[in-house]
């Protein structure tokens, strides 16, 4: 493996730990989205383009949009903005 792969694996580990320790829901969704994007790049490096496209579309795309809509519906985004 080359240096770029090790950097991506390190970032993946950082994202996995950071999503557990973030206090705000919006920040944790953004970290989760970046985790999915990094994972899709790793799938491309492993020469699995079908998994990379699926991870990017479902993990970073659809799931994140559903999380954002859910936070908006339960007014969690509005409450976080007032706290700041």
Account of the protein in words:
This protein is mainly α. 87% of the residues lie in helices and 0% in strands. It contains four helices and no strands. The protein has helices at 3-21, 25-45, 49-73, 76-83. Helix 1 runs antiparallel to helix 2 and helix 2 (25-45) runs antiparallel to helix 3 (49-73). The longest helix is centred in the last third of the chain and has 25 residues, at 49-73. It is flat. The N and C termini lie far apart (43 Å). 12% of the residues are buried. The model has no long low-confidence stretch (mean pLDDT 88).
Could you give a short description of this structure?
The protein is mainly alpha-helical and 84 residues long. Helices cover 87% and strands 0% of the residues.
Estimate the strand proportion. under 5%
Based on Cα principal axes, name the global outline.
flat
Note the gap between the termini.
Answer: 43 Å
Q: Helix segment count?
A: 4
Structural class call reads: mainly alpha
Low-confidence stretches: none
Radius of gyration: 15 Å
Helix percent reads: over 70%
Instruction: Describe the sheet with the most strands.
Output: none
User: Would you tell me the overall average pLDDT?
Assistant: 88
Could you tell me the number of beta strands? 0
Element order: H for helix, E for strand: HHHH
Task: List key phrases describing it.
84 residues; mainly alpha; 87% helix
Topology:
Elements: H1 3-21, H2 25-45, H3 49-73, H4 76-83
Helix pairs in contact: 1-2, 2-3
């Amino acid at each position: 493996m080359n240096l770029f792969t090790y950097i991506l694996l390190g970032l993946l580990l950082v994202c996995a730990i950071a999503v557990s320790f973030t206090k705000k829901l919006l920040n944790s969704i953004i970290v989760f989205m970046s985790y999915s994007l990094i994972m899709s790049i790793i799938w491309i490096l492993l020469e699995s383009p079908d998994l990379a496209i699926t991870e990017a579309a479902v993990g970073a795309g659809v799931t994140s949009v559903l999380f954002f809509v859910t936070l908006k519906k339960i007014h969690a985004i509005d409450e976080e903005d007032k706290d700041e």
